[in-house]
Specification:
By secondary structure, the protein is mostly beta strands. It is built from two helices and eleven strands. The chain has one domain: Jelly Rolls (Sandwich), CATH 2.60.120.10. It starts with 33 loop residues before the first strand and ends with a strand.
């Protein structure tokens, strides 16, 4: 059978016969990798390096004041959002919608999206495949101390598959 309900599994990635102890745990009390000047944080739950490029998963917590990117799209990666706490404004290409705890928003390649939040709202961000988003987040965190020229900013965004609309 074929079709969306009968799609085959992908080819085997593990070819052993006994399994192996290869899982890892990131404890909840691990310090965030990034603390933004705004008071927000970014936690690297599962980087593309750790997942062999299959996905990247990050916990994003906003500071007290509203922040977040304007509408944009990616050509090579999908992005998914899962609201954990508070309210997050999510742009779905047609307008801004309010995301609340438990709401999920998936954006395929080329899909217009943006997000904004405040008041310590938090969400999970997942990218697939697991692109190296850490450099993107870390560079943004350092912009106050190391501002970019317009030319550098354009190159940086293109290198990180980010196209503003």
């Amino acid at each position: 059978m074929t079709g969306p309900l009968h799609r085959p599994y992908p080819p085997d990635a593990y070819r052993g016969t006994t399994g192996e102890a290869s899982g890892w745990i990131r404890p909840d009390d691990t310090e965030p990798e990034i603390r933004y000047r705004s008071g927000g944080t970014c936690e690297y739950l599962a980087t593309g390096d750790r997942t062999h490029g299959t996905f990247g998963l990050y916990r994003w917590t906003f500071g007290p004041d509203e922040s977040g990117p304007d509408p944009h799209f990616h050509r090579a990666i999908t992005e998914s959002f899962y609201v954990l706490s508070g309210e997050v404004s999510l742009y779905d290409g047609t307008g801004w919608k309010t995301g609340r705890p438990g709401d999920f928003f998936h954006v395929p390649e080329g899909g217009l999206h943006g997000f904004r939040g405040a008041d310590r709202a938090s969400m999970l961000l997942m990218f697939s495949p697991g692109a190296p988003r850490e450099d993107y987040f870390e560079t943004l965190a350092g912009l106050a101390e190391n501002p970019m020229s317009e030319e550098e900013r354009v190159e940086f965004m293109l290198r990180h598959d980010t196209y503003w609309v």
